[in-house]
Amino acid sequence: MAWIKRNLFFVVGGILAIGLLGAAGFYNYKGWNHNATAVDRLTEKYNTLLDLTKKPILPGDEKTDNIKAAKEQEARLRDWIRQAGDCFQPIAPIPNTGTNAVSSEAFAAALRRTIVQLQNEADTASVTLPPRYGFAFEAQRVLVRFDPDGLGMLAQQLGEVKTISEILFAARVNSMDGIQRVRVSSDDVSGPQADYFEGTSETNNLAVLTPYLITFRSFSPEVAEVLAGFASSPHGFIVKSIIVQPAGAFAVSPTDAAVTPYAPTPPPGPVMPPPTIGAPPPPSKGGLQTVLNEQLLRVTLVVDIVKLLPKN
Q: Does the residue 50 lie in any domain?
C-alpha cells in the first residue's frame, strides 16, 4: 500500500491505459466482426449472381413470372424518363415557326423586337447594361439578309439568350457585362469578339449541349438567386464553372465591357514587401460593430443548355 501511495499517479495512469487498451481491442473486434459479416453477405450474393448467370433464361415458373416483372420494370423506367424529361423542356426559338424554316424578314423583326424587350426588362429590374447592348447579336442587328443555313440555329440561340437574360433580371443583379455564345452562322464572322465564346456544341446519344459564357456583377445574395434560377428552371441548364472575383479588380467602364472579350485573369505582378505594421488602432468608443462588409463581385459562369434529341 505504501508503494501505491508513493506512485499513485503511475498506478492510476496504468489502470486508465489498460482500460483504454481494452476498449480499443473491443472496438477492433466489433469492427472485424462487422467486416466479416459484410464479406459473408457479399460472397453469398456474388455466388447467387454466378448461379443466375449460369442458368438458362426462362420466362418463369409457377412462382415467378419474368415477363411480367420485365414489363413492370420497363414501365417504371419509362415513367422515370418522362419525369426527368420535365426538367429538360426545350426553349422555344425566336421566332417560333414550328420548324427550322425561318425567313430573313421574320428573324430581323423578331431580333429587334427581342432586344428592345430585354432592354426594357433590364431597365425595369434596375440592371445596368452596356450602351446599346445587342445581347450577343451585334452582327445581326444591322443586317436585313442572313445566311439561310444558319437562320434556324440563330433563332434557337436568340430564344436561349432571352431565357438566360431573364433569369439574371429576375435575380436583380447590379449589371450584366455580357453574354457570349458559340458561332453558328457565317454572319457571326464579322461580329465583335465580345459576343462569342470559343467553344462548340457537343452532341451525344441523348442530347445536344450548347455552352454560354455569362458575366455579371452583383452581391452574393444575387449570385445565389442566379444559381437558384438556373437550378429551378424547367429547361436543362447545367452550370459547368463559376469564377467569382471582387469587382474592384476589374474597373471596366460599360463602354469597354461592350467591346472587350472575356479573357483569363492575368498573372499577378511582382510581389511587393509587406507594409510595416504599426500599433493597432485604439478600440472605437460607442457605435455598432461592423459584422459583414459586403463587396461587389464580378461573376463569370459557363452554362450548358441540354437539348434532348427527338425520339425516334
A: no
Cβ pair 238, 306 in contact under 8 A: yes
Residue 223 lies in a domain: yes
Pairing, β 175-180 against β 202-203 = unpaired
The mean pLDDT of 198-224, rounded to a whole number, is: 91
The answer to pTM > 0.85 is no
CATH code: domain of residue 134: 3.30.70.60
Mean pLDDT score across all residues of the chain: 82
Q: What is the mean pLDDT of residues 267-291?
A: 52
Please tell me the distance from the alpha carbon of residue 115 to that of residue 119, in angstroms, as a whole number.
6
Q: What domain count does the chain have?
A: 1
Look at residue 251 and tell me whether its pLDDT is greater than 60: no
Give the residue-averaged pLDDT of 110-118. Answer: 95
- What is the three-class DSSP state of 25? helix
Residue 90 has pLDDT above 80, yes or no: yes
Q: Which of 171, 152, 162, 248 is nearest to 212 (CA)?
A: 162
Q: In Å, how far are 21, 230, 257 from 201, measured between CA atoms?
A: 61, 19, 25
**Comparison of pLDDT for 141 and 294, the residue scoring more:** 141
Q: Is 276 within a domain?
A: no
Dist CA 270 CA 142 (whole Å): 45
d(CA 299, CA 291): 24
Partners of 188 in beta bridges? none
Q: Which residues lie across from 260 on neighbouring strands?
A: none
Q: Using the 8-state DSSP alphabet, how is residue 203 labeled?
A: E
Q: How confident is the model at residue 30 (pLDDT cuts 50, 70, 90)?
A: confident
What range defines the domain where residue 184 resides? 93-261+295-308
Distances (CA, A) of 247 to 149, 230, 271: 40, 22, 21
* SS3 state at 296: coil
Q: Which residues pair with 242 in a beta bridge?
A: 301
Amino acid 255: pLDDT: 37
Cell matching residue 199? 467553344
